Amino acid sequence: MCFWRLTIVALALAGVACSNVPSSESRHSGFLGDYSRLVKDPYWDNSEYWVKPDLKLRQDYDKRIVLEPARYYVDSATQKLIAERGEETAKVLAHLDQAIRRELQAGGYQLVKSDDTRSLRLRPAITGLIRNARDLKPTEYVPIGFLIGAGMQLTGVRDQQVRIFFETEIRNARTGELLAQSVSAASGNEISPSVKASANDTYQALDDWARQVRVRLDRAYRQSAERRAER
What we know:
Layout: H1 3-13, E1 39-40, E2 48-51, H2 57-60, E3 64-67, E4 71-72, H3 76-84, H4 86-106, E5 110-111, E6 120-133, H5 144-149, E7 160-172, E8 178-191, H6 203-230
Parallel strand pairs: 3-5, 3-6, 4-6
Antiparallel strand pairs: 1-2, 2-8, 6-7, 7-8
Helix pairs in contact: 4-6
């Protein structure tokens, strides 16, 4: 895994980047396997995506989704830190799962368990989580274990913000054919650098990303219908 490499990249970018979120290319965790097809998402900042060319989503698929449980996809050292802070980190995944379900159901999608060929399988993962100051001081980038488990004792810095990185893929629920992928980032609460962050500070980011998943699906279904109407 490359989570710790992500943190090093974030440090390198801190002095020159115009955004306080590391670039999407630097956040590739390995969860998606192949990132070579991803392109910049014109609708969402700090995001990349790929959709299978000529995907006939409305024609070939019903609005039925098998939702896999959200998971962390991080290196073993970070996974150990997550396990040590089990209650808080479990709340993050539980909230994300609930947020995705809520958004999909609001969009008219049916959550199912059957893996028929007209259903989609959605696989979501949290691949990174940092807290960083708005003025990009390199010492303020901290990996997920510290964000959940400890306060930062820094002086002379602005309030910090929770940043969460996500990767997701959509497949044919029966055959496993890959249909779409994305890499995204979202922002949670602003917090004082001396305050211990909690799961509550991530909820805004989780809700925003769940909404992004639903909007992307809506757009893919709509564009598929438009292409079909043009023929």
